[in-house]
Design goal:
By secondary structure, the protein is an alpha/beta fold. It contains 17 helices and 20 strands. α1 runs parallel beside α7, α6 packs parallel to α11 and α16 crosses α17.
């Protein structure tokens, strides 16, 4: 009897899982309560997979041998509870793909910096000539890559939602960058549940695996110290000299693994700002653990170009610099963004609030921000948080209006920063759409 695999969600990960499952001889059914994009529909038709969108037909779902769930679907929705009540295992696309590859997995998690660190690590491995794929939250899905062109290495950006759906999946080199409150609506508003979810990246590791972690993040440090984790521990810090990891000594970034020393000047790093020292150290340690040549690591850390929508300089208009940080969808990301600027900032903020606590931004806003432009439908919380600190707080509902208003509030030498600290779904399709509209508005000035 053929195994029936039901995939909930017809996006990148769901369709990738369908490609791999079909190749492995499963009977496959894809169901999406929303609308499946045309490009994904055509892939499903080409590989002869039955699909539906706009609904979930329970009779076609509850007879599954196993279910792969999109990371965006909470475990608490009634359909998932019904599936589990029937004793059907629910897993992630990453878990499924992991069964069919023998590749070495470098997995990166954290509340902030995941994308940058994953891209930087991928850049380094590629430069070293390794056969490497990039997946997880970025690039083609892992399942699709395993099905069509399996690699020797994968760099995976892993969200807590993806980690929740993992059972036997093992990460050979795990990085935990930082953990701050995020997505608490998915974790019963309990921070400790979210923390537990992040630490799932270390499950199934053996003493032959690696744990690269931020020694300066108290939540991460405590979790590592209190947990019974088997991997080799590689701490990195900008405050403390660590052994068997990475640290900063005056103007130098130093990596000391297995008594082998790597050293480079901080000024040579492509990524500047305190938060990026952490990202560079984490990637550099991974490079050393993989025994990459020092020259390759040095070159990679100095010539890397960051991702779109992450502190991306869009251009200058009359001496005012415009920066697109639309990918900053939580307060912590925005903290990092504000922290990296020396000039006065006109800050564009707002969107769908994920239970934000703006208190942690108060000091930075007082020091660096001269005016706030709200870009969202409901900006009440932003006004309440900052009206005693900032005189000019204005409301807008389009990227064009936000840019025009920020431009009017700026002068030569200032930076206009789009760093929303919120999700984008009130006014935009996603953070990319928000970033693109911002860039178009800047070009139209």
């Amino acid at each position: 009897m053929s195994k029936r695999l039901v995939i909930l969600g017809g996006g990148e990960s769901g369709v990738g899982a369908a490609i791999l499952a079909k190749k492995k001889g499963f009977e496959v059914f894809v169901s999406d309560r929303g609308e499946i994009k045309d490009r994904y529909k055509s892939v499903l038709k080409n590989i002869d997979v039955e699909w539906e969108d706009g609904k979930h037909t329970e009779s076609k779902i509850l007879n599954a041998t196993e279910v792969i769930k999109s990371p965006g679907i909470p475990d608490t929705v009634p359909l998932i509870l019904k599936i589990k009540e029937k004793g059907i295992q629910v897993i992630s696309e990453i878990e499924f793909a992991g069964r069919y590859t023998n590749a070495k997995i470098i997995g990166i998690t954290g509340s902030n910096g995941k994308t940058t660190t994953a891209l930087l690590t991928f850049h380094m491995l590629k430069k070293a000539g390794l056969n490497v794929g990039l997946a997880g939250n970025i690039g083609d899905s892992l399942a699709k890559q395993v099905a069509e062109d399996d690699r020797g290495f994968y760099v995976l950006e892993l969200s807590s939602f993806q980690l929740d759906g993992m059972v036997d999946f093992k990460v050979d080199i795990a990085m935990i960058l930082n953990i701050t409150p995020d997505h608490l609506d998915r974790y019963d508003e309990k921070f400790e549940n979210y923390v537990d979810s992040k630490f799932r990246i270390l499950q199934n590791q053996t003493e032959y695996n690696e744990i690269i972690y931020c020694y300066d993040d108290q939540v991460v440090k405590k979790g590592i110290e209190n947990g019974n984790y088997k991997g080799q521990k590689r701490p990195f810090s900008i405050k403390t000299v660590t052994s068997n990891g990475g640290y900063i000594n005056k103007e130098d970034l130093i990596i000391n693994t297995n008594n082998k020393l790597f050293k480079m000047k901080i000024t040579e790093l492509a990524l500047q700002g305190k938060h990026n020292l952490y990202n560079s150290m984490a990637s550099g340690i991974a490079g050393r653990v993989l025994d990459l040549k020092k020259e390759i690591i040095r070159e990679s850390l100095s010539d890397f170009q960051n991702v779109e929508h992450r502190l991306e300089e869009v251009g200058k208009v009359h001496g005012i610099t415009f920066v697109n940080d639309s990918k900053a969808t939580n307060v912590n990301s925005t903290w990092y963004a504000l922290e990296s600027f020396q000039h006065p900032v006109v800050w564009i903020v707002g969107g769908v609030d994920k239970g934000n606590d703006y208190e942690m931004l108060a000091e930075l806003v007082t020091d660096k921000v001269k005016a706030i432009v709200c870009l969202g439908k409901d900006n009440k919380k932003i006004h309440e948080a900052f009206e005693d600190l900032i005189e000019d707080i204005v409301d807008t509902e389009t990227a064009q209006d936000a840019v025009n208003m920020a431009y009017r509030l700026s002068q030569k030498g200032d930076t206009v920063l789009l760093s929303p600290a919120c999700a984008s779904f009130d006014l935009f399709d996603n953070y990319e759409d928000r970033g693109h509209q911002f860039k178009r508005a800047v070009k139209a000035l």
